[in-house]
Amino acid sequence: LRLADEAMYRAKRAERDGTDPDMEPLAADLSDAVRNGQLRVHYQPIATLPDGRIVGVEALVRWEHPQRGTVPPLSFIPLAEETGAIREIGAWVLSQACRQVAAWRADGHDLHLAVNVSPRQLEPGLAERVFAELSAAGLAYRDLIVEVTESVRVEDPVAVDQLRRLHERGVRIALDDFGTGYSTLRYLTALPVDILKIDRSFVAKLDGTPEGAAVAETVLRLSQMMHLETVAEGVESPGQAAELAGLGCVNAQGFHFARPMPADEVSGLLSEQDPA
Ligand code: C2E
Ligand code: CA
Ligand code: CA
Ligand code: CA
User: Fold this and answer.
1) Keyword Transmembrane: yes or no (predicted)?
2) Contact, 188 vs 223, CB < 8 A?
């Protein structure tokens, strides 16, 4: 009966997510992934507009599954959030990424680090663990950006308190996928937000017309009025980069600049940018 339940549950979730049930990683595998050294961190450069200078990186986790090959995060992060394994995965990603960015900074590259944090991780003690990790790696509070989505519940006092503690020390809080949720504006007053990441669906609409630019332009105006920074996500073409620059957007991320890549490939880009 248990197995039948699990199979039905997986099939239902696969239907909801549009994934193949046979490809769904099992929770049991996932809880071993950290311990067995199957996770990798890739880094996607964040660049300034219009020149494309790399000023930061976003850490994005990958799972090298022994049978399934590389499993993308959207196929296992939701499962990890359900099982709670996201706490261990998130802590591991933060630790790896802090050490890597500290090494790049020691080599003379002035970079910040952005990490994704799930609502499940925003529990008592998180901020203290983040501070300890930064200090162990030799990074300053302001070198770190914590990215959260609107899946954080603004009426969850523990989550809001942890974000406040981070923000008070100077860790910046970014609202990821901004504009795609239901109560976007409420988040801006309820959470201590420093940065808005313009969701890539709005960047994809940029086509040189005022209608195409409407949402991106509105988010940029809003962030200027609220003294927030902005990062445009999913910039794939020179035309989009130029249009965003024209709208006053300073930071951008996307395949036009660089894909997420292993650390050594980022090192290559950085040494071209800042020759020793
Ligand atoms: P996200 O935080 O919105 O990350 C950006 C995603 O957009 C990445 O997908 C990246 O590869 C993709 N992307 C970047 N530039 C472009 C572009 O120009 N065009 C298009 N079409 N896509 C672009 P990825 O790496 O598959 O990650 C998917 C999501 O998984 C992330 O979305 C984030 O929500 C989650 N995730 C990844 N790593 C972690 C992690 O360590 N912890 C948590 N909690 N979530 C993570
Ligand atoms: Ca993100
Ligand atoms: Ca995003
Ligand atoms: Ca997303």
Assistant:
1) yes
2) no
